[in-house]
Amino acid sequence: MKRTATIFLTVIMTIALLTACQPSGQSAASSQSSTAAPASSDAAGGGTPPADTTPIKIGVIAPLSGAGTSYGIGIKQGAEMAIDEINAEGGINGRPVEMKIVDDATNPAESVTAIQRLIDHEEVDIIVGGWGSSQVLAAIPVSEKSGVPYIVVGATNAAITTTDNYWTFAVIKSDDLQAESLASAAINDMKFERIAIIYDTNDYGTGNKNSFLGVLQEMGKEPVIIESYKSDDKEFTAQLSKIKAAEPDAIAVFGTIPGAPAIMIQARNLGIEARFIGTGGLANDQLIDLGGEAAEGTVLTTYFHEDTNASAAAFAKALNDKFGSGSDPVRPILSAWEYRTIKQILKPVLEQVGTDKEALRSAVKDWRGEIIGFDGELYFNDRYQLEQPSVLIEVKDGKFVLYQ
Amino acid sequence: MKNYIPKIVLAAVLLGALSIPSFTPKYILHLVIYIMIISIAVMGLGILGVSGQISNAQGAFYGIGAYTSALLSVRMGVSFWASLLIVILFACVVGFVVGLPTIKVSGLYLIMTTLGVNEIIYLIMMNNITLTNGPQGVSRIPGPSLFGFTFKSMPSYFYLCYAFLLFFALLSIRIYRSRLGNYFIAVKNSEIASNMNGVNVVKTKLTAFMISAVYGGVAGALYSGYIGYIHPDNFKTDVSVLFLTMSIFGGQRSVVGMLCATTILTIATEYFRFIGEYRLIAYGLVLILGMIYMPEGIGGKFVQLKNLVKAGKQHDKG
Amino acid sequence: MLFQLILQGIATGFVYALVALGYTFVFRCLNQVIYAQGHIFMVGSFMGYAASTKLGLDAVSTLLLMLLAGVAFGFLLDRVIFRKLYDVATMTFVIAAIGLGIILQNAVRILYPEPVKYPPIFGTRVFRIFNAQIAEPYLWVIAISLLLIAALYCFLTFTRYGQAMRAVASDRTIAAAMGINVKVYISATISLSAAIAVIGGVLIGPLYFASFDMGGMIGLKAFSAAVLGGITNISGAAIGGVVLGILENLSAGYISSAYKDVVSLGVLILMLLFRPHGILGKAKPTKV
Question: Taking CB atoms and an 8 Å cutoff, what residues of chain B touch C33?
Fold first, then answer.
């Protein structure tokens, strides 16, 4: 036993010494992007090939179990509705569209397996979906290496769209941009003087807290107190007692369901009357279902609301008609991005260039167009992030309404 | 001639396994690699189990190995192999620190203590952002490379993990059969009797703990090099429970049993995808039924079958 | 603030105590720990939710109904699963319980994928004691916990059936030799423990939203509470729960909310190392 151990260690040490002299590892990272060399486009070329009726496969990766289930349901609804509509209108250049959906169980390790399954087993042409920054960050290296475009609809960490990612796009507004909008609204419009922050220690909460704090400090302001909690905590009395003692006039809650509504209820029970503000993680009907009266008056940034304009209202109504009688509750906000990406970005892109991955990638990059709920033309910036204004909404009388 | 048949079969299986990458689709190959990596961690628990200890902290050691290797290579450009040495060293130290106080504790209380240790380590990973990058995780971890060849393609990683797995499996078998292994069994059966017979119970238990920690750490290093991105959630107590489940399901004394168990349980979650939402229920059923009908694990079933065969032979002879 | 934290700690502590009671009870009688206790508690929470929303019952009727439902549920689990596992090794039992937990979680998830809000059957008032606030449901939790603990204690100490259960716990063979039908008693123990968990779920539902994944954390903390207080002692569940609750709140309030679990776990680990039988437990001498 000792002998084998010594031999093993000697072998490893020798290898270590030899490889330590060579430039290790770092070159591997940059070689990833070059492996995805553009293949020759088969959509180009002369002659009229016979009409292609093989289905186009759109991969959807979403949390259908685990903590993110409610968000995953939204993504699924959006995808289903978009694809059904496309097929009803004749498909894309005569080809039907198929949805291939995989569950990542709100787990980063599972999401690697899930995306692998989409790429290798289901052989999808493009991937749209993803919720939760940890899951998405874990899955991206796979799609990057395999050269499959991945449009992220539900994860807002700024690291998702760095300049190193060649195949990854984000339509949902990233944390830093949302936090900026929120901070400027809070200080300039709503004129809060004493802002307290309570954040979830996961990547969503931490990312938001850091961005928000950064913007506040640029504006010359400091929060009166910062508290944190673990995603599955149920009791917030300790943190809220400290917040109460700091006498804030607004509390920024950077977390998701079910933490946020619980915090609001317990805060009100303790006699805290400050207003709640937050970003996209709160944009979930469950905030109102669970938070009840405590959630009244909360102001948050989001990326869709049915009252913004007529097309948004039409979408919300269509979604309700389609899924209203089903077993799962209808989730307009959460399905908005999935629907809009597939219907308004992917459909024209696929019609234009077919399913060659590199062609798809460039076409998405250069896409400009309208998105339901926004005025004017939107496009992807050089970080492959869709530029868009924030939508500010408020909880009023038990519903989300636009903030005036 | 008859005696050589099992050995020939084994050699054939081992050689045949080498050809797996050439005919399996990438998705399956990914699963195989993943199974090989976690098998190493599971086997570590087997060693611990043979000495009568239960650890609910293997996930933490897996995580320590992953983070050490990842952080060293991302932040300081240390090669995989050099960081592997540090992982082994570090795992030994932490294994010692965790194992030392738990010497007096056993059974239920040991489960609780190690669970607490895992939680604490997880919280440190999540919240100590300067050290571990916290909930952002560590990304762009370069994989291992050897004389300029980088193990980035899946088949190459397969062979790398195959080599590691084979090494650690053989190591486990050797340990079980060695004098140290006998000490483990003695201590498991009765600490007092072993003590009276001159076995250094403390040293034996500690050694088992440290070896098990090293297995976990190495598996973690392989994991981080393979996936390229790690996050504290990969190393929560659920993972420890998963490893523990696999080691018990396999029957801790049997290396083959544990390999089978890891394979079966991992495939169970993937294979059952076709029943959609019910797949995890099926997984739970597999666990329960497995425990009802194979309380000694798969390894135990092998032993039973072997004894049956032997008894049959005796009967024929006599 | 100190008083608020302590008060909340006691309240939360009794939440843990309710679930811990189940662990302690089964351990005393079977020498095993049902790791699925937290998930049984979760199922109980949803059963109560279904009962109170569909049947519109008030607090006391819901509790009584759930008591019966809990016993039935426990009996079902015992019949189908645990019966075959009375004599297996510790770890085998643990893995089987883990499997049960996975099944329960996912079965409930299919029915209720999202957290649900309980109807306010235990009231929504918030009471002020000195300068601290406490929500009404917590008072129910404390009251019912104390009631259950007292009832169980009397049962085990003063009734024949309770004494028979204790006999089965200390030595099965001798109990059987004395004419006690061991299997029936183990079955009763498991059913009762499940009923306690179910009641716990109903009481806590209004406080925390019922969700399919609520069982894991609470199960773990309740387990710590049981071990802390002494897993061989019924009152230990309450003591352990309250100590854990206060410890958590104080460390979140005065040390760091991110690391509060480190403190409670640290204390737990220290306890296990120096006094594994817990605060109220009695040390078991090692027999040679």
Answer: 108
A247: left (phi > 0), else alpha (psi -120 to 50), else beta? left
B:156-215 residues touching chain A, CB 8 A cutoff: 167, 171, 174-175, 178, 180
Beta-carbon separation of A31 and B152 below 8 A: yes
**A32 contacts A100 by C-beta, under 8 angstroms:** no
Chain B touched by A11 (CB under 8 Å): no
Name every chain B residue with its beta carbon within 8 A of the beta carbon of A4.
171, 174
Q: Is the dihedral of CA B76, B77, B80, B81 positive or negative?
A: negative
Asked if A64 contacts B277 with a C-beta cutoff of 8 angstroms, the reply is yes
CA distance A237 to chain C (A): 7
Contact between C247 and C200 under an 8 Å Cβ cutoff? The reply is no
User: Could you give the CA distance from residue A115 to residue A129 in angstroms, rounded to a whole number?
Assistant: 11
Instruction: Report the candidate in C101, C112, C106 with the shortest Cα–Cα distance to residue C50.
Output: C112
| Segment 24-63 of chain C within 8 Å of chain B by CB | 27, 33
**Per-residue DSSP letter, A294:** G
Enter the tokens of residue B244: 């523990």
Query: Is residue A318 less than 8 Å (CB to CB) from chain B?
Result: no
> Per-residue pLDDT for chain A (404 aa), expressed as one digit of tens each?
555 556 666 666 666 555 544 333 333 333 223 333 333 333 444 445 556 778 889 999 998 877 777 788 889 988 999 999 999 988 888 888 999 999 888 888 788 888 988 888 888 989 998 888 888 988 888 888 888 999 998 888 877 887 678 889 988 888 778 888 888 888 888 888 899 999 998 888 888 898 899 989 988 889 999 999 988 888 888 899 899 999 999 999 998 888 899 999 999 988 899 999 998 888 877 888 888 888 888 998 887 777 777 888 888 888 888 887 766 677 777 788 888 888 888 888 888 888 888 888 888 888 888 888 787 888 888 888 888 887 888 888 888 888 77
Q: Identify which of B115, B124, B277 has the shortest CB distance to residue C110.
A: B277
The DSSP 8-state label assigned to residue A385 in this structure reads B
Cα(B106)–Cα(C155) distance, rounded to whole angstroms? 31
> Which residue among C95, C224, C258 places its CB closest to the CB of B127?
C258
Is the backbone peptide bond immediately before B295 cis, with ω within 30 degrees of 0? no
Inter-residue contact B216 to B224 (CB < 8 Å): no
Query: What is this structure's pTM?
Result: 0.82
Residue at token pair 């939203």:
C209
Q: Spell out which residues of chain A touch residue B233, defining contact as CB-CB under 8 Å.
A: 107-108, 134
**Helix, strand, coil proportions of chain B in percent (round to 5)?**
80, 0, 15
Q: What is the dihedral of CA B260, B264, B265, B266, to 10 degrees?
A: 100
Enumerate the domain spans of chain C. 2-213
Q: Residue C66, Cβ neighbours under 10 Å: how many?
A: 25
Of the candidates B82, B129, B229, the beta carbon closest to that of A16 is on: B82
